[in-house]
Amino acid sequence: MFEEHPKDRHDGYEGFDQLADDDAAHDRYDQYGPYPEEDDDGGSRQRSTKRRIVMVAAGGVFAALLAVGGYGAYNVVSAVSDGGSSTGGGHQASDTPAKVKQTSPPTAEQAEAAAKEFLAAWGRGDLTAAGGLTDRPETARAALTAFHDQVGPRSLTLTGTGRAPGDSPSEPALGFRVKAEFEGTPDAWEYDGVLTFARSEDGRPVVRWKPSVIHPQLTPGRTITVKALPNAAFKPADRNGRPLDAFPSLRAVLPQITPPDGSGAAPGRAVMLSGASGTGTEPEQLFVLTPASAPQVRLTLDADLQQAAEDAVKQQSANGNPASLVAIQPSTGNILAMAYSGGFNRAVAGGQAPGSTMKVITSAALLEAGVSPDTVVPCKATTNSPRAWHNDEPGDFPSYTLADDFSHSCNTGFIDKGLEKLQPGTLGKVAREQFGLGLEWHIGMPSRDATVPTPGNKDEAAAQYIGQGQIQVNSLLMASVAATVQNGTFRQPVLRDDAKRVTAPAKLPADVARDLRAMMAKTATQGTARTPMAGLSGQIGAKTGTVEAGGQANNSWFIAYRNDLAVAAEVEGGGHGFSAAGVAAAQVLKAGGKG
Q: CB-based burial of residue 565 (10 Å sphere; 0-12 exposed, 13-18 middle, 19+ buried)?
């Protein structure tokens, strides 16, 4: 095999004579097998020496490469032992685990050197080399390649951190720190890992390969990949950017708010740890590369006022009476608060008779028909339409004016004057054309429009003049009535600035708006609303409403404004308007009606 020929001394093996004379080289050769038998004659001895030089040279090359780079040493030895046929890191494709040398584990120094070489190869992306430094080269190489391809960090920095928990002379364990950086992501993904070691049959220290080498939570059957995050939950904020999802009344409202068109919502990306298919294990988010983005839409709601509304409704519904409250900014129509109890959003979707709060619109119709606030409109104890009607306040008051009837909520005076001055359908026309009731509102979520039908007879007309009968409204609609009086102009309430607003066909006449404000102010200071409105300063006005509920406790209604804040509240079974609903409305006015 190794003929004596001058050429043999120069085919890449220069210095072999020196190695042959080197006792250390002889010792290194002894690690890998005995010397060949020598012949008695000189020629045979010379050929025997030549064969020793080649074998020692192979051993010397391995020893030198092992000292400076484990992968190089492994490749050379594998090529010799496997006849040059290898896959990946020098092992055959079967990837039989390297036999572990049973004599002794690697020393701490050897483990540290092996760890340094493995981490360096992995960090620079030489995954075949890194795999070759483990006891399962092909498995390791495939796993590291999958991690590289499926996670795709821009750079990977791997730094040793010293002895790890569980380290012992019989089972060396060293910790390391992973820092992965990604394109377009300012933050780095960092985590800690642990390497354990064994000595292969040929004496080399190798990393024991386990999936947890890549990540401590990676186990057989699980994968680490970059996946798209679900679209960010669209959570509208209040007008100052504060969250609203903690308010009980808004939990069912916010999902009905849709993002604006062309909002630019985008799913995010994250490094995810997934279980094997069919296991039912939910993917675990390890690191967010880019968070899912959703457009921020600021609603017109005000978190502070919303809290006040929630508290007021909760207090009035403590006995099981469903209630609702809506607050509006008259100058803009912006809805500032919306609260309700009972599970159904009666604040914007409910429909019920508003009681004497409707007398605001009846008064507007009478004022436009030529009646003034000072016109005497007697408040009789009873009247007929032909149905018999009475008042909450007993007695006859023949000298009451329209303003007195309004502030004391006299039913008979409004019925008599309404039947005298107004034509069937007039109330509905004023409600629609000047107060916007009955128009198709688009507030930014589903809502119910008002119903003010044309009465079929005088009894139906009488009922409408005092807010009963077939009229159907809710707190949102009646808060808008109060806001229209305060501002003098109907501005359709909205929850978001991009909502489509409708405008009323006609404007409330300036003198009518002025007279209505004066009448509501008198009610707030001297009439049925004086108790809940006591102590409120600024421009104030109010109207109470008490609705008969077929033998059950009356429903309580109250509408009011204070400066640039208008409120409507209703409490089913709450009794008189100044009690339950009035207390709730006044709480919100105190909280937010200073401006």
A: buried
| pTM for the model | 0.66
The pLDDT of residue 104? 83
Q: What residues of the chain score a pLDDT lower than 70?
A: 1-103, 232-233, 261-265, 276-280, 593-595
- pLDDT for the residue numbered 44: 37
Helix (H, G, I), strand (E, B) or coil at 367: helix
What span, in angstroms and rounded, lies between the C-alpha atoms of 119 and 125? 10
In this structure, the strands spanning 540-549 and 205-207 are: unpaired
Q: How far is CA 489 from CA 398, 431, 436, 493, 563, in A?
A: 34, 13, 10, 12, 15
Q: How far apart are CA 32 and CA 35, in angstroms?
A: 10
What is the residue type of 233?
Answer: A
CA distances to 91, 365, 395, 452, 579 from 548, in Å: 92, 24, 20, 18, 15
The whole-number pLDDT of residue 202 equals 82
DSSP assignment, residue 175?
Answer: E
β-strand pairing of 205-207 with 185-199? antiparallel
- 289: helix, strand or coil: strand
| CB atoms inside a 10 Å sphere around CB 592 | 23
Where do the H-state alpha helices sit in 238-379?
A: 303-316, 346-349, 359-368
